[in-house]
Design brief:
mainly alpha
Length: about 260
């Protein structure tokens, strides 16, 4: 099943993308497998990682991130291959055309509704969502490992904050890219304003928000297909952050 895997770059400038594709030979703009590259060559083996044991841990961690990335791509292939992306007009789109009482009446009519397509779609959506959030943890821990920062933090906020410490020791280009990555991580994982983290936390630890069409709740304003698109967007943000990390690692390794 063809699935568009091209990364939509939103904060990396053209010169950074050119560095990835021309200098490092990473397929960063390709429509499939954008992470394909010879990382042992890009990162100069493990000489910059202070010992073979640390280098082994670094590459093992990096490989695991890419294995999960492959699983996320397969998840998307199944989702589209099973034609679960069929969307319908959600109640939220009607809010401006009807009174609050009329909207509530429509919602009451859906409380016991269970759409099988939406139900199947949630299986793939929830896996995608949970694993994207997990991938952020893995990426921050990989960065901590590279900068010899202890990753015994329990909150990802602490992990992101710890990455600010080496900023002043880096050269200008390295500092800019790491700083950009930190800002994106804070932006996407903000517990109060972000979408990914609170949705995932409620899904795992509380009463997760249902989709409209799956035994709707009072706040179920979006269909599974709409939520899927939001998760896809979060995946894109994370992939661009990984490309940024690759630039940082390559610059340090080749300094």
């Amino acid at each position: 099943m063809p699935v568009d895997q091209r990364i939509e770059y939103r904060f990396l400038p053209p010169q950074s993308i050119g560095f990835l594709t021309e200098k490092l030979k990473v397929a960063a703009t390709r429509e499939f497998a954008p992470f394909a590259a010879d990382y042992a060559s890009i990162f100069q083996g493990g000489k910059w990682l202070s010992g073979s044991k640390k280098a082994g841990r670094f590459y093992s961690h990096l490989i695991h991130i890419f294995v999960i990335e492959a699983q996320l791509v397969l998840t998307q292939q199944y989702y589209y291959g099973l034609e679960l992306d069929q969307d319908r007009l959600p109640i939220s789109a009607l809010i401006s055309h009807f009174s609050e009482e009329e909207i509530q009446g429509m919602r009451l009519g859906q409380l016991s509704k269970l759409d099988i397509t939406d139900l199947h779609g949630r299986i793939f959506f929830e896996y995608l969502l949970v694993m994207i959030r997990a991938q952020w943890d893995k990426l921050i821990r990989l960065l901590c490992m590279a900068f010899e920062i202890k990753d015994n933090w329990s909150s990802i906020d602490d992990g992101i904050e710890s990455l600010k410490k080496p900023l002043q020791t880096l050269k200008d280009t390295e500092r800019w890219h790491l700083d950009a990555l930190i800002h994106v991580a804070e932006f996407r994982l903000n517990a109060e304003q972000g979408w990914l983290r609170p949705f995932r936390d409620s899904l795992l630890h509380k009463t997760g928000l249902h989709s409209e069409g799956i035994i709707a709740q009072s706040k179920s304003l979006e269909t599974t297909a709409q939520l899927w698109k939001k998760a896809k967007d979060e995946h894109n943000w994370w992939r661009e952050a990984v490309m940024t990390a690759i630039i940082v690692f390559a610059l340090i390794a080749n300094a």
